[in-house]
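Q: Please design a sequence for this.
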């Protein structure tokens, strides 16, 4: 007869045998041969803890510093820090490996969009279809550039107005996000775009989009879908009534401008009865979300950097000013120092600095000399690629001149390692728009003004990571704008 004691022993034995089996399997796994802390062969708990506490990017970077360009992060995940690995993961076959279900977190109105579609095949048709809207030739059209330029003027007027108020400073975090919202909605919806730097209703829309923190609940839902209801109960999802209403209403508007994304999507919807009911608004909302914090945060980090009270920042601002006043009619894409400042800004402060996860295809793959089985999650992160000292000497310093180096081969190599917009078929669709916006705004400001930190600026500008993007921790950046003559001497 089996006694309770025997039963307990049996239960223990089953658990122990199970654990031994798991340990043996993990030790025999091809990933066990990869560099990385031993515990990552057995558990993903440390990685998950870092994710939940905004610490993943720095944790992954520190592991690369310690273990080199290939690091096992968990029993099923590996991070790489070389351009060859990035080419294999994001460029092989054009679009690289398939996205993981992590991107399901980014569906809009319950509908998959370009960004959240996982398999390559489903994604590539839509990407090709929408590509012309974001091609440089479309972005460089006067109707697009004039819109961006007007919004840059609104930004500067707003900042000057704030600086002449008793406060004496402008919070550029707010006004740059308004500018980014206005710029992207001009492209998506013209003539139904926002004017958030002049209109309080649109300002509230920006606030709804940019001030939120749903990192922990998103990760929990992703890793333990069974807890979705509990998470929704304990921490109800933040609704976005203003932006949802704006996008739903606007995407049904008649006669959007021919250059807009909306006109293209509406034509597609007419010709494609099988398009999901929320296909057009979902795609628009996705591009809206993709275009506000990214451009707004990069500009914010960049203007903060230029405004620091250091000789290096003063020098960069002065050189930028000189180039801009000496070339008032040269198109923004032909100004080398402005280009170098933007590139260095994207290198030092990539707004999407974290791993972009992909699945190794069936049959496995050899990356950086190590074979990894199909189904392994692999990724690179811009934060680490941009800090390789062999490619970017003094990687922690902000040095625009590195992009103007006489050693052309070195500059080509730096461009190859630039990963702010990712690479390949799933790289950023809005890249040319974002660059046009950033250069137009910096030209508007630094051709006329000098910016310095306000004495009221006590906010923390450390990067605080969100689910895939990052942002300044305190979401505030108080600067003083001072109009200057054309002859600001190099100090
Ligand atoms: C400084 C500004 C920006 C940066 C650094 C940036 C960066 C990126 C990166 C790294 C990705 C790939 C993400 C991944 O694979 O997980 C991406 C994708 C994307 N971005 Fe941007 N982005 C910026 C601005 C914009 C703007 C202004 C728009 C459009 C209005 C936009 C639209 C998109 C879209 C639609 C995708 C998905 C592309 C696809 O899956 O094929 N982005 N962006």
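A: Design:
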């Amino acid at each position: 007869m089996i006694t309770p004691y025997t039963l307990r022993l049996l239960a223990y034995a089953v658990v122990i045998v199970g654990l031994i089996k798991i340990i043996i399997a993990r030790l025999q796994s091809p990933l066990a041969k990869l560099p990385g802390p031993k515990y990552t062969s057995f558990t993903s708990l440390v990685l998950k803890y870092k994710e939940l506490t905004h610490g993943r990017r720095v944790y992954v970077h520190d592991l690369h510093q310690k273990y080199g360009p290939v690091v096992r992060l968990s029993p099923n995940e590996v991070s790489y820090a070389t351009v060859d690995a990035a080419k294999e993961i994001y460029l092989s076959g054009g679009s690289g490996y398939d996205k993981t279900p992590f991107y399901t977190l980014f569906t809009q109105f319950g509908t998959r969009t370009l960004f959240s579609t996982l398999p390559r095949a489903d994604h590539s048709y839509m990407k090709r279809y929408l590509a012309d809207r974001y091609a440089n030739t479309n972005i460089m059209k006067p109707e697009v550039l004039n819109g961006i330029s007007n919004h840059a003027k609104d930004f500067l007027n707003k900042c000057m107005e704030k600086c002449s108020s008793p406060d004496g400073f402008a919070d550029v975090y707010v006004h740059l996000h308004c500018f980014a919202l206005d710029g992207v909605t001009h492209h998506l919806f013209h003539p139904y775009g926002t004017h958030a730097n002049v209109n309080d209703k649109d300002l509230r829309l920006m606030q709804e989009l940019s001030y939120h923190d749903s990192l922990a609940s998103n990760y929990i839902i992703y890793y333990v879908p069974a807890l979705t209801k509990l998470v929704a109960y304990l921490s109800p999802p933040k609704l976005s009534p203003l932006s949802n209403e704006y996008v739903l209403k606007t995407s049904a508007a008649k006669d959007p401008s021919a250059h807009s994304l909306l006109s293209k999507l509406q034509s597609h919807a007419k010709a494609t009865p099988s398009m999901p009911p929320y296909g057009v608004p979902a795609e628009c909302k996705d591009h809206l979300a993709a275009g506000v914090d990214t451009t707004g945060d990069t500009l914010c980090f960049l203007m903060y950097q230029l405004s620091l009270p250091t000789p290096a920042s003063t020098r960069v601002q002065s050189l930028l000013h000189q180039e801009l006043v000496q070339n008032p009619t040269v198109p923004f894409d032909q100004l080398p120092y402005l280009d170098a400042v933007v590139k260095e800004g994207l290198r030092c402060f990539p707004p999407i600095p974290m791993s972009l996860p992909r699945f190794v295809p069936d049959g496995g793959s050899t990356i950086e000399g190590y074979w990894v089985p199909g189904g392994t999650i692999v990724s690179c992160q811009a934060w680490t690629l941009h800090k390789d000292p062999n490619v970017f000497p003094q990687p922690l310093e902000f040095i625009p001149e590195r992009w103007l180096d006489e050693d052309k081969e070195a500059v080509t190599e730096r461009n190859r390692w630039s990963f702010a917009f990712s690479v390949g078929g799933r790289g950023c669709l809005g890249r040319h728009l974002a660059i046009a916006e950033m250069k137009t705004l910096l030209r508007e400001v630094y051709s006329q003004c000098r910016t310095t930190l306000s004495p009221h600026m006590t906010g923390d500008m450390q990067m605080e990571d969100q689910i895939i993007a990052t942002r300044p921790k305190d979401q505030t950046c108080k600067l003083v704008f001072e109009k200057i003559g054309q002859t600001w001497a190099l100090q």
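Q: Thanks. Anything notable?
A: Residues 279-307 form the longest helix (29 residues). Residues 114-115, 127, 184, 287, 290-291, 294-295, 298, 350-352, 356, 420-422, 426-430, 433-434 surround protoporphyrin IX containing FE (CB under 6 Å).
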